[in-house]
Structures are given as structure tokens and as C-alpha cells.
Design brief:
Helix 2 packs parallel to helix 3. The protein contains four helices and five strands. It is an alpha+beta fold. A five-stranded mixed beta sheet has the order 1-2-5-3-4. The longest helix has 19 residues. It has one domain: Ribosomal Protein S5, domain 2 (2-Layer Sandwich), CATH 3.30.230.
């Protein structure tokens, strides 16, 4: 079986994920998972789909991710891995969907408007 290729997005992060049968190594931008994400929370987020599908140690995952911050990148990778696991085995769809891992979180940062300090925050009002 050749590698399954999927894409995951979150905020401004885009992750191209390649999953193939293997020993369970996760390579992100040519670095091991603990070297790329120092935070244990982000590492757990990346592995979440594999844990729910009970596929830890069965697949090698190679990821090219760009844009955004560490949280957005971790969640983009999670979505890509979840989509790949569904492509490999349709029985994984139920548990992954129940946990909400197959839904693309479309929330983005709201743009700054003219005449405002931030997107919605106004400048301080001075009566005198």
C-alpha cells in the first residue's frame, strides 16, 4: 500500500499529511514529533486521532506544515491524520466523528477595522 495523502487546515495553518503502514514514527517538517512540538499538549493533540482509532504504532506519518502558530499547526495535523485514517479504513469514521475530529474548525481571526484599535475594540472615549 502506498502513502495516503490528505490535507488539514486550522486558522492559517495548512498541513499536508502522508500516512503509510509502518512502526509509528511521526515526522513533521523533517523533524521528530518531540523536536517539533516541545509542548506535551500539542504532541497529544497530534496523536489524538491515532489514539481514538487504536492505530498507534501501526502507521508512519510524514507531515509538511506551514503557516500559523503551534496550536493551529497541531490541530491542522490532527485533522489531516483523521481524514487519512478514514480513507484507510471506513470503520474509523464513527469514533473519529463522535470526537469531532473530522470537522474543519472554520474560525479565523477577525480583521482589524479602520477607526478601531482592534477588530471590535474602540479607542477610549474622552468626554473632555
Amino acid at each position: 500500500m502506498e502513502a495516503i495523502s490528505t490535507i488539514g487546515r486550522r486558522k492559517t495553518s495548512i498541513a499536508r499529511v502522508y500516512v503509510k503502514p509502518g512502526k509509528g514514527t511521526i515526522i513533521i517538517n523533517d523533524r521528530e514529533l518531540p523536536a517539533y512540538f516541545a509542548s506535551e499538549i500539542h504532541q497529544t493533540t497530534v496523536k489524538q486521532a491515532l489514539t481514538i482509532a487504536k492505530a498507534e504504532g501501526n502507521y508512519d506519518v510524514k507531515v509538511n506544515v506551514e503557516g500559523g502558530g503551534s496550536k493551529g499547526q497541531a490541530e491542522a495535523i490532527r485533522l489531516g491524520i483523521a481524514r487519512a485514517l478514514v480513507n484507510i479504513n471506513a470503520e474509523n469514521r464513527g469514533p473519529l466523528k463522535k470526537e469531532g475530529l473530522l470537522t474543519r474548525d472554520s474560525r479565523m481571526v477577525e480583521r482589524k477595522k479602520p477607526g478601531r484599535r482592534k477588530a471590535r475594540r474602540r479607542f477610549q472615549f474622552s468626554k473632555r
